[in-house]
Amino acid sequence: MTTSPASTSPAAPDVFAKVRGHERAAILAAAREADVLPYFRTLTSPALPVVRMEGAERIMLGSNNYLGLTGDERVMQGARDALETYGTGLTGSRLLNGTIPLHLELEEEIAAWMGTEDAIVFTTGHQANVGTLGTILTVGDTVIADSGDHASILDGCLLSRAKLRPFRHNRLDKLEKALQRSATDGGGVLVVVDGVFSMEGDIAPLPRIVELCRHYGARLMVDEAHGAGVLGARGAGASELYGVEEHVDLRMGTFSKSLASCGGFVVGSRDVIEYLRISSRAFLFTASAVPAAVGAALAALRVLRSADGPALLQAVLDNARHLRDGLEALGYAVVAPQTVGGDIAAPGVVDGTIVTPIVPVLVGDDWKAALLWKALYDGGVFVNTALHPAVPPGGALLRTSVMATHDTAVLDRALDVFAAVKRDFEAEHGPLPGPGA
Ligand code: PMP
């Protein structure tokens, strides 16, 4: 297959023209040439606290495996049992030949965990957002979304053809303005926010958002992808942490993070979830999640809901605080622990503050972030890199994240690498942003 012009007509523009001379491709090529490309590196081991990547051992500080359950024997067994019983794939939609009892058990268990009437399982978290927003919203409605919301939320909003009113990240004054303006739009209004934002790791101020939605008569959806399995006594997410679950109309989550698998879910009232089951195109017109993925997610959820769950929730948040404090002590620019209010008692809350497992390190310049990433990688630490357009221009981050199963000695080894890398990097390239930047 080639990308040579498909048409003989000189006037017809070529849809492939955009793939040539693409700015993003040029940047990737330059980074690859300098061997500092932080993307598409290959793992050759399970996604555990220490992994093998490209022939060397690296401490994994770039995973969403927050509870560290991807290698847990109970979760592996759940996947094996499902594979043995139902085979490798179901080759059909949930509507037709793609539903096995495990899908239904998983939906029931998720609804019980989240305390809702019903739950629906999608094949990925991305599809859960697209398939919910694209179905529940329609032309004439308004959707108000935080500018930091995940791409799948934006995709769902755009697909729905509802009027999109974005507001500046976590700025409640802007949210309120958008709610006021929507009053004259004429349709239903939905506010959608991430509970924990995926790049910066900060938590949406849900109590105030709930108040605003109630005041202006808007529905609220919270994406709990990074909050589920992490925040609150049951690990049900930011809505649980803040005690506002009952006031959140729809909550979405994924299996691709704490639940150690792949897939997504949405919970809410029975009528809305039933409507999604018969109307959501991203649910109906795609093959259902493969048995091993469903079996693993179900087993991971059962671990979280077992007597072992609280210790895992405590461990991931303790590890996050340990890494954050260590990075700050080394002079890196890391966010301060977030104030959640003195009356909240939940794993990880210390003096009314909390740190999520996502600990971003601000670097600023994209190229410097790539160089720093490479130095850490060569030192044996893998972190994620968020460059523009994933973050605003000049806001490049190294996105570090921890698991419940990182032991302190491993995190301290990583911090030693961060210390040495910073010394060498600053000697050559000048100072990095410091705490408070
Ligand atoms: N929402 C958020 C906030 C996410 O970070 C992600 C994945 N990174 C998704 C949704 C999509 O989830 P999945 O990976 O299961 O498709």
UniProtKB/TrEMBL annotation:
Q: Which UniProt keyword terms apply here?
A: Aminotransferase, Pyridoxal phosphate, Transferase
Domain of life here?
A: Bacteria
Ranges annotated as spanning the membrane: none
Required cofactor names: pyridoxal 5'-phosphate
Domain Aminotransferase class I/classII large positions? 59-417
The EC designation for this entry is: 2.3.1.47
Q: Which GO terms describe its molecular function?
A: transaminase activity
Could you tell me which Gene3D superfamilies the record lists for this protein?
Answer: Aspartate Aminotransferase, domain 1, Type I PLP-dependent aspartate aminotransferase-like (Major domain)
**Catalytically driven reaction(s):** 6-carboxyhexanoyl-[ACP] + L-alanine + H(+) = (8S)-8-amino-7-oxononanoate + holo-[ACP] + CO2
Q: Is-annotated flag, keyword Transferase?
A: yes
State if Nucleotide-binding is listed as a keyword.
no
The record, for InterPro entries, names:
Aminotrans_II_pyridoxalP_BS (IPR001917), Aminotransferase_I/II_large (IPR004839), AON_synthase_class-II (IPR050087), PyrdxlP-dep_Trfase (IPR015424), PyrdxlP-dep_Trfase_major (IPR015421), PyrdxlP-dep_Trfase_small (IPR015422)
Q: Which family does it belong to?
A: Belongs to the class-II pyridoxal-phosphate-dependent aminotransferase family.
Q: What is this protein called?
A: 8-amino-7-oxononanoate synthase
Taxonomy-wise, where does this protein's organism fall, top ranks first? Bacteria, Bacillati, Actinomycetota, Thermoleophilia, Solirubrobacterales
